[in-house]
Design brief:
It is globular and about 45 Å long. It is mostly helical. Helix 2 packs parallel to helix 4 and helix 3 crosses helix 4.
Length: about 100
Amino acid sequence: AKATIREFWDPSGDGFYDTGPRHGDLIARTRHAEDNSTPSGNGMAAHALLRLGRITGDDGFHEHGMRTLRALAPTMVAIPTATCQLLLALDLLDGPSRD
């Protein structure tokens, strides 16, 4: 989780990039919220970090998960059927879970 934050976190706080800084020369580093044939990296990262924050009590993990959800909330509202993994992360916050 710490490596994911170090390698993929957007310093502006808008979630996670799809590629790391060592990926090579890119025109742009993209960030996707939408799920395709696989869940979005942002959705998976948010879910994993929120769960890890809950299990370990690490506020840093929880905060990165929350910041990702906040940054991508407009996309979740606009196209909820394309952001299922992000919505699952949000659902984790809403109720109890067996960890």
